[in-house]
Structure formats: structure tokens, C-alpha cells
Amino acid sequence: MGESNKINKICERIRIVTDHETLEGIKLPSKEKGVIFIKLDSGYNVGVKEETIKRIDITGQLHPDAGDEGETGSSQDVKHNPKLPTIAILHTGGTIASKVDYRTGGVIARFAPEELLAMFPELSKICSITSRLLSNMFSEDMRFAHYKIMAHAIASEIQQGVKGIILTHGTDTLHYTAAALSFMLENLSVPVLLVGAQRSSDRGSSDAGSNLIAAAHFIAKTDFRGVAICMHKNPSDKQCVILPATKTRKMHTSRRDAFQAINTKPYAFVDYEKGTIEKLAPFPLPSEKKLAVREHFEETVGIITCHPNMFPEAFAYYRKENYKGLVIEGTGLGQAPVGVPNKECAIHNQILEEIRKLVESGCVVVMVSQCIYGRVHMHVYSNAIDLLKVGVIPAEDMTTETAFIKLAWLLGNYPVEQARKLFEQNLRGEISERTPYEEHFAPDFS
Amino acid sequence: MTPHQEHLNHHHLDYHHLGLMMGLEIHQQLEGKKLFCNCPTQIRRDKPHFEVRRRLRISAGEMGAVDVAAEHEQKKSKYFLYQGYQDTTCLLELDEQPPGKVNPDSLRVAIQVATLLNCKIVDVIQFMRKTVIDGSNTSGFQRTALIGTNGHITVNHKKIGIATVCLEEDACQAIERDKERDVYNLSRLGIPLIEIATTPEIHMPEECKEAALKIGMILRSVEGLKRGIGSIRQDVNISIAGGARTEVKGFQDVQSIPTVVKYEIDRQKKMLEQGEVIERTVRKAEEDGTTTFLRPMPGAARMYPETDVAFVYPILTDVTHIELLEEKAEKLQKLGLGKDLANAVTKMGKADKVVELVQRYKNVKASFIAETFVSTPTTIKRKEKIDVEPTDAQFEEIIAALDQGKIAKDSVYNLLCDLGRKGTMNFDKYMLLSDETINHELEAILKESQGLAFNAILGKAMGKLKGKADAQKVIELLKQLTS
After folding, report:
1. Which of A170, B11, B403, B451 is deepest in the core (most CB within 10 A)?
2. The CATH number fitting domain A75-293, selected from 3.40.50.1170, 3.40.50.1010, 3.20.20.80, 3.20.20.150
């Protein structure tokens, strides 16, 4: 997530004289209209209404620390220990390391390897690191174009012969990116771990460091290959969890353990302090084939969520705008409001008709469930049976996010007919063959 | 001059010589809900419902020089266990969710207090994160905002500056510490706290106590503050020429401030005499009056903005005129109460009620009304072993009856006893008799008291009519009958 307290390059010390008092401190960038903000020598920021100010004197200048921002695209190596495996850290946002400038209150993101090692000295015993800043953005701003940049950056790091890659990422759409990279990077021979933080790295309690260290342990100590997510197992700072890239979802707005495996088990738990790894599920099988980057995505793919009182126009939009793919997040087993049990539902005929027309237009329409957990079963009730008849494809036990990414990726790289077929096949662990029994299908909060 | 006074006087001169400078920092908890969530401000020690384990990592590069206090804690490299309760602590205390909107009641009370301390209220309030990495805040920082500046109080005709009034979150309470980890209870974390800091203009140990008492009085004049042990905490910053600022915290009570301060000054003085360097430290006031080392003094400015909380434009119209407790006590004295009685009524929080009753019921003496509130229930508890806690309405019922001449003064005690025993008051039982009935009774007594002296008859009459007739009236009527 990260926070942006942008600081002035040069700060001025000022003295504000108002009707009531004289205040001295550092002038801050104004954030409210008609208000001057000043950082007092006590450290507190206060806002002074301009209308009360009689005079402002500049009493001095203050130069912020040198080298505050990392340079985009620059790659730096810190003393490479040949005995330790090399891990490349690629930054995309959700800063893992920050520095607070207490003079101005500004938070400055840190990306260089030596800065990361200075903040997380534990890393130097696990691996040597290289790092690269790809972007520094909120993950909700991510677009398919960013996936392309990431995939190529990863491929080039693999060519350099790294043991594994850590990709730092804002958490909101981290699981979309994880799924996207899974599909894009075919025959991946190294671990690619996405790491985020639910508490920003400018605070002592940030989970960024422990997630990063756990990911480094996991890369250095296992033969895992493929894309996975490394976040907190629970609210405590002790164990992190390695989650499957295509079957994980952000299930909480703010908790450290927001990421949960859906319809499957995590790969492993990592004790970030001890560096021990507890394996929970088999790792993806290795491939002898050469890495291929399938980088394309179909841009016009959407998601629509079913709810009571829908209108056909909502579906008509996708046909009118020539969408090539649509994920319907249906209710229950994979239903949409297309039945007409009474006169109040008369309009539902038109909804079914719109979906039929959409499929006929060449759009690939797939069905996931808003239940999140479980599998869609579209042959049970008549509404879903009607949807199957018009050509809607069930997404099995895929999450909405993975189904969306998979559909866009398939349509970007394969002819439509092949994409339709491949959608129903398990390509990267996104579809479970079986639905085994678990005592708690969701995290156990009892 | 007694030797004790001489000793004090000797010190008096010393303090001046030593360049003694002291400042007070007072922390007062607020009632109601927490500062940034809707959890109650209930401090608990019962069995916790859950425990979360955490570590804190020092924020990188603290302006080049690593913060002394932060480094001290980091060296310890401890982990922390936080204990909480499902029903009274939430994800915010666990640092598992961002803060909500600042509690408007706390904000109003803080502005009210700052106003009473003659502060200029900040135009636009911004909450800050004050870095704290001893584990007492799950986030690694304390949320705090400057509310008012440049105020003052008057202590013994001397103006002492109020540098700042801040509104902040209280920290967790340490339950247990060992080499490896500290255990904290989450229930206190996030309780709204008003922090009042004076300027270092206090030059005498006694003055330090008096300033603390004055601020305490001002605080108690405002509603919405927590009362009782731990709800107010005093820290004293002490320095003498050639030394360094030392913060002493954890005073048992305000009265112990001068003793502790004197010991601390002595300690610093001796250190300087022996050529030792005084470090800036935080020390704990012990029960015996000495102080012990707690930790190095944290660096000055370890704050950066709390970007999860919006700016606050204080609403000054919410600030009402508040009569200070000392003003209330003065008012009671003007109504005829002695100083001690006036203070006792004020301390009970009954000043406004007593003033109201005195003004409404002119036939009852002010001091009698005050005593009925302050001492009658305690006397009953002591003498009769009866617990009685009359409501303000019940007090007023009694005073009204007295005012209208329906009951005798003596009956007040008995009515309150009855209230304690039975939970109700039966005024009929103590209703004063009419003149006619009294005469009737007196005639009967006279008949059976043939030949007795006036005083003996009066004695008999008083015994019979006690609580049912005013003594003065009995004397009068008896005189008429016997003349």
C-alpha cells in the first residue's frame, strides 16, 4: 500500500507571526487551502490559517539527506558472497523499506540492495541480493502493461542465473499479478515470490521485513519453482505462509494474514526467525522445457457480479463495447437471474437473451461463484442449465481474479476456440482436480 | 525557627544557587470511548482472550544519528506478547487496521482543557506518529496531536507557562518483562490521554507540587475525565546548572513530588561535585523517595505525520464556560461555608447542587445543607453501621421539608438512617405536630407532673416530643401554659 509523504527538496525554516503568537519551525508543503503547515521544533505539525498570519520570515534553509530516491531501472550489486545463493529483488510498489526524515516528516522509500541489507541485516546471512526498481505504485493502479514489464524483468534476472526472485507489490491486486505471472512465465525453473506488506514499512511494526526474510529463506532453502505469494500466516510475527499464485485471495482489508489460499492448501509455512520450513503440499513439478514468456493479454475482458434486481443493459454493455471476454461472478453454484418464475421476473428473459447474444458475438463468457469457496456446478438448477445452453463456460473452482486473468491471458495468446478449451483445463494449478474435505474450508476463527 | 524549617530554608537558597529548573508533564486519561476506535476505555487485568506475538524493527536511518532511546530498545531485540480481549479491544489496538475518525468527545474535552489553561488553540490540528519502539505501542508509534500552545496557570501569584496541551493515545500496560520478551496488556492502549506540559519555569520543589495540584484542580473541573488510581500521571523534568535534563515519572501521588524532587536534586548535585557527567535519562520515582534508572532520554523530534487520520479543524464554539472547582469553593465560602467545608463539598462534586439548594431554601442554613451532603452519611456509617447513599433528589426532599417547617433538624439524621435501612423515607413519621397538638400533649404532661419544677417538666416534654416539635416552640408553649 505505501504512503506518500512527499517532501520538498529544500526545506525552509520559517517564523510565523500571528495575532496571538509567534511560531518557528520548518515549512511543510501545504495540504489544505488557506492553511500554512509548519513543523515545530517539538516535532509536531500544526496548520496556521493564512488569514491570521501577520508576517512570515524565512530564517534558514535545510537540505534533506542526499540520495533519497532510488533511480528507476538501476541495478546495483552489494558485495556478492559466492557461497550464498543470489536473489533478485524487483520492486513494483508497496515499499518494503522506508526511511523517515523526522525533520520534515517525509517518508522516503528505500530500494537499493545496501539499503535493504542495512534495514534487514538477517538477509546477508541467507543470500546475496541484487535489486531493481521497476515502478513504485499502488497496486490498484496496475494494468496488463505492467505485467509485461514484470515478466520480462523476471526473465532477464533468470538469464543472469539467480536462485530466485522476490517481487515486492502493493497488496490490493497482488493475487491478480501472481496469477498473471503464473500464466505468462511458462516452464518457470526458479521460484518467483510476491511479497507485500499490510503495514507500511515506515513503522516499527511493519510486516514487510518479516515477509521479505521469510521469502528469502524459502527461496534459498527449497527446490520450489513457480510463482507463489509470501505473507503472514496470522497476526503474529513468527510464521509466514507460502501461498499458491493462482489460488489465493486477499480476504481481509487490513490484517497481516489477509491472504488466504482458496480451495486448496498453502505450500508451506516459514518461520522467518529460525529459517525453518514446514511443507504442507507438494510443489509444482519441474519442467525440462525452456522458459517462454507469453506476454499478451486481451484488453477487453470484464467482470460482472450478479445481484438481485439486475437489468439486461448491464450485460448489453459488454456486447456493445465488443468485449472479447466476460467473467460472470454468479451466485451459489453458478447462477444468474435468468429464470422467470413469476411476472416480476419477466425482464430475466432479456438477461438470458443478452448473454446469448454476447456469446454469439464471439465473447467468451465464463462463470465463477461469488461464494468464493467451492466449485461451480451448473447442471443442478435450471437457470445455470440455461446459461450452459447459451454457451457460458463453468470456471470450476477458480477464484474470480484468477478466472479473469486466465481468460484475458488465453484470449491474448490463443485463438478464441483454443482459448475456450484451455480455459476448462488446469494449466498452472488454478483448477483442483478433486475437492477434498477440510474441517474448516475458510480460515478457522473459532 | 525549628531545625526542620531551617533545613528547608537552607535548601531554598541552594535551589536558587543550583540553577534548578523544573517542568511538569501531566497525563490525564479521558472517559468514554478510545481515541480512534469504538472500544470502551476499560482497563483490564482479567484473563486475556488472546495473545499475539510481535517484533518491532527500528525505522531506518534516523536522520543520520540513530535515536538513543530507539537504539537502546533495539539492542534488547526482544519480542512482545500482546494480550487482549474480544469484547473490549479490537484490530486497531493490534495494529491490524487503520485508525478511525478521532473521537469527537475527546477532542472537545481536550480543547476545553486547553482553553481553561489559557492556551491558543491550534488552527488546524494534525495527528503525528511519535516513534516508540519499547513495545508499549503495537504500531511502533504513539498517535499524538498538538491542541493548544502558549497557555499559563497562576500558582501563588506566579505565572507558570503551559507550553503545550496534546491529545494522544495511552500505551499498553507492561505485565511482565524478561530477557527475551515483554508481555503487554492491550486494554489501556488507545485510551484518550491529555498531555499538559509546563514550561521549565518551576524553581522550587514545593512549587512543583502546587502547580501539579492546580492543574489537577483544573482538570477535575471538566467532565469526561477518568477518575481514580492511574487516571492521572505526573512526570517532572529536572535539571540543575551543569547537569542534564532528567525526567522522573511514576510518582505515588502529588504529595510525594517535593520529597522525590529533593532527593533527585541531591543526587545530581553529588554527581556534579564528584566530577561525574549527568546523562539525559528517564528515572522512576520509588516509594522511598529515591529515583532509579529507567532508560536513556528519547531524542527530541521523532515524529512524522499520521497520514491515516484527517486534519482536524477545531470547533471552538463547543467550548463552554466552565467554573473551576476553586471558583466553586470560593462561591460556597461566600454563602457562609467554612473553607474546609466548602472544599469538601467541591471535592465531592456537589458544589453546584449545594449552591442551588442554599439559594432555593432560605430557611435552612447553608452550612447545615453542606454538612448534610458531606458528613451526615459518613457519620451514620460510622455510628450506626448503615450504608446510605442518598440521591440528589432525596437530599432535596429532606431540605425542602426542613425549609417548610414540616420536620425538625434532628429528624434529618433519622430520615437518612431509615433510607439506609429500608431504602425509603417516611416523612409522616417525623412530621412536626401542630401548636394545638403540642398544647394538648403539654397539658397532659402538666397534669401528671403536679409539683415538679419547670425544668423537670420541660425535660419530660422534650423527651416525649423529640423529633415531633421544635425545641424552641415547646419551651415557648410550655411557658405560656405555666404562666
Report:
1. A170
2. 3.40.50.1170
